[in-house]
Amino acid sequence: MIITYFITDPSFPFPKILNAIKNKKPTFVCYRNKNYYDESEILEFINFAKKYSKIFINYESLKNKDLLTYFDGIHLPSSKLHLIENFKEKIVIASTHNLTEVKNSKNADFITFSPIFNSKGKIGVGVEKLNEICKIHKNTIALGGIISNKEVEKIKKSCAVGFASIRYFLT
User: Fold this and answer.
1) CA–CA distance from 62 to each of 8, 26, 33, 81, 134 (Å)?
2) How far is CA 171 from the centre of its chain?
3) Cβ(113)–Cβ(96) under 8 Å?
4) Which residues are in the Thiamine phosphate synthase/TenI domain (predicted)?
């Protein structure tokens, strides 16, 4: 079974996000909101999502570090890879987009590597490149342009341990 990783997006209504968690039951779900900070929303997310999934918070959404105690892990953007060692007590997922970032994430529990497929104006690197990255970091999660079962099936045939998406879970 592969890891399914839902990364939230504040451009979708919060009730729709919670409904997607309940209905799709991703293995991991990450609270990510770069638009605004709402601690009551984060607490609602924690209380709801932990019933269905391991829960993560994006580093940039963590304004109150005390909240980290409620999460299973943290998702670090590629600009914060130097902080991996600061979160040894949590599951660390690191965002990567190139070979240097992958190598700098060797101590992360998981990495996302993107974009695999074309996504929002970005050209995907493809499954062959994904498989090369998987040889460097054994816990690689594919990300980027995964919007339907068509892409998921390609990921299942790859060496990745799973896939991450926003739109796949919300459409």
Assistant:
1) 14, 21, 9, 16, 29
2) 17
3) yes
4) 5-167
Q: Is-contact 2 155, C-beta < 8 A?
A: yes
Q: 29 near 166, Cβ under 8 Å? A: no
Q: In terms of pTM, does the model score above 0.85?
A: yes
Which tens digits make up the pLDDT trace of 83-117?
999 999 999 999 999 999 999 999 999 999 999 99
CATH architecture group of domain 3-170: Alpha-Beta Barrel (3.20)
Domain ranges of the chain: 3-170
Helix and strand element counts for the chain (H, E)? 6, 8
For residue 111, the cross-strand partners are 94, 140
